[in-house]
Amino acid sequence: DVVMTQTPPSLSVAIGQSVSISCKSSQSLVASDKNTYLNWLLQSPGRSPKRLIYQVSKLDSGVPDRFSGSGSEKDFTLKISRVEAEDLGVYYCLQGTHLPLTFGSGTKLEIK
Amino acid sequence: EVQLVESGEGLVQPGSSMKLSCVASGFTFSNYGMNWIRQAPKKGLEWIALIYYDSSSKYYADSVKGRFTISRDNSKNTLYLEMNSLRSEDTAMYYCAKSAMDYWGQGVMVTVSS
After folding, report:
1. N or C terminus: which one in chain A shows less Cβ crowding within 10 Å?
2. CB < 8 Å to B105, chain A
């Protein structure tokens, strides 16, 4: 199984600051169709997870452009510029290239 | 608007069975694969099953293989998860999610306890 190593486990940031979350996979996430199926999701408190970014860097509809994703092969990063209060929650990376699908362990973002 | 609505939550004893449903609307259900994902209390997310749009292929996590069965009825826009031989470690919130995890249901709680 592909292991997704996500760091840090938690972050505490002030409104307006920028943060980065790392996700490293134990295998390359480049699929046979040349796409890389790496997603980022946010689970706000008491809510279902919501996908923010798919295929490394593509923003889902309605997701602010303060969010950005980058990376390739086995090393990926989610960046949130100018953090807002609504960004708090737990962020997960998810690889969709290999079965079984696997999630990172999550990064809890708290607002100072 | 895409909606996924799970049902079937409850408290069951170890060794028993339970069936969850997920009714989809707002998209052409029969065109998309569907997933079940679960989240144990205070824990992270665990993918447990995937079914192709036409039920031609089904995949399971090792933790549920042989005990859980994913199925769908495209005429009813409904996804199912039949869970047998339930264990305490199956206690979790269960979510259905559309294909590439772009839409999720609200989740249903399954508690396995004597």
Report:
1. C
2. 48
| DSSP single-letter state for residue A97 | S
**Is there a contact between B50 and A92 if contact means CB atoms under 8 Å apart?**
no
Look at A41 and B106 and tell me if their CB atoms are within 8 Å.
Answer: no
Per-residue pLDDT, averaged over A38-61, amounts to 98
pLDDT at res. B92: 98
What residue of A is the nearest CA neighbor of B95?
Answer: A48
Beta strands in chain B (DSSP E): 3-7, 10-12, 18-25, 34-39, 45-51, 58-60, 68-73, 78-83, 92-98, 108-112
Mutate to test the interface with B, among A1, A101, A102 (most CBs of B within 10 A): A101
Closest CA to A84 of A21, A35, A18: A18
Length of chain A (residues): 112
pLDDT in tens, A76-103: 999 999 999 999 999 999 999 999 999 9
